[in-house]
Design a protein that fits this description.
- With 103 residues, the protein is an alpha+beta fold.
- It has a single domain (11-98), classed as SH3 type barrels (Roll), CATH 2.30.30.110.
- It is 21% helix and 26% strand.
- The chain contains 2 helices and 4 strands.
- It has helices at residues 17-22, 83-98, and strands at residues 11-13, 26-33, 42-45, 59-70.
- It has a 4-stranded antiparallel sheet with strand order 1-2-4-3.
- The longest helix is centred in the C-terminal third of the chain and has 16 residues, at 83-98.
- The radius of gyration is 14 Å and the shape is globular.
Length: 103
């Protein structure tokens, strides 16, 4: 932040063991937000997509905000996404963010 403060945001961790072996101590993830602003690259999520409760009722993932961060920056595990829904998120990232438009 411009004023030097850090903001804490929940992230959906994308890293697998193989990725962590390449970059020990680092994780990769996408930002979760409860903001009402949605855009083309926001992926709505619901409590049914997770093993436990979410921190906010209205939540979505910002598919284009993919960040790397050190393990010591993780404040803790909130919940885990169901495998089928996690695969949908990965597919959305691949199709809408990593693949260029053919227009």
């Amino acid at each position: 932040m411009p004023d030097g403060k850090n903001l804490t945001h929940p992230f959906l961790i994308l890293s697998c063991e193989a990725a962590r072996a390449q970059e020990p101590g680092y994780y990769y993830g996408i930002m979760m937000t409860g903001s009402v602003h949605r855009d083309r690259y926001s992926f709505p999520v619901s409590k049914e997509m997770f093993e436990g409760p979410l921190q906010k009722e209205s939540t979505h993932l910002r598919l284009y905000i993919i960040s790397s961060f050190r393990e010591n920056r993780i404040n803790g595990l909130v919940t885990r996404m169901m495998k089928r829904d996690f695969q949908r998120v990965l597919d959305e990232i691949k199709n809408f963010v990593l693949v260029a438009d053919s227009d």
